[in-house]
């Protein structure tokens, strides 16, 4: 799979949604756009999960010592809840 920037994937998704919402595409092209949208969606999720793994937050414990811990991204929709 080719590496794509998150912003490019989101823009691609927005373009596909806009085309699909117009409702003027033939069925085969609609299905093709839908499949492209699903691929971009999965790429966005993978990129977000990779970014999540890289993010740590600085927290102060009960003794006033700063430590880092992993940041956990919480999804609020669909089956991606953690």
From TrEMBL:
Location in the cell: Cytoplasm
Gene3D superfamilies hit by this protein: Exonuclease VII, small subunit
Catalytic activities: Exonucleolytic cleavage in either 5'- to 3'- or 3'- to 5'-direction to yield nucleoside 5'-phosphates
Any one of the GO BP annotations: DNA catabolic process
Primary location: cytoplasm
Keywords attached to this entry: Cytoplasm, Exonuclease, Hydrolase, Nuclease
Superkingdom in the source lineage: Bacteria
EC number: 3.1.11.6
PANTHER family per record: EXODEOXYRIBONUCLEASE 7 SMALL SUBUNIT
Entry's family note: Belongs to the XseB family.
Protein name: Exodeoxyribonuclease 7 small subunit
Gene coding for it: xseB
């Amino acid at each position: 799979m080719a590496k794509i920037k998150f912003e490019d994937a989101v823009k691609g998704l927005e373009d596909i949604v806009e085309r699909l919402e117009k409702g003027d595409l033939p069925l085969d092209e609609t299905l093709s756009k839908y499949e492209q949208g699903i691929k971009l969606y999965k790429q966005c999720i993978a990129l977000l999960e990779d970014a999540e793994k890289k993010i740590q937050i600085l927290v102060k414990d009960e003794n006033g010592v700063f430590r880092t811990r992993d940041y956990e991204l919480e999804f609020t929709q669909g089956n991606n809840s953690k």
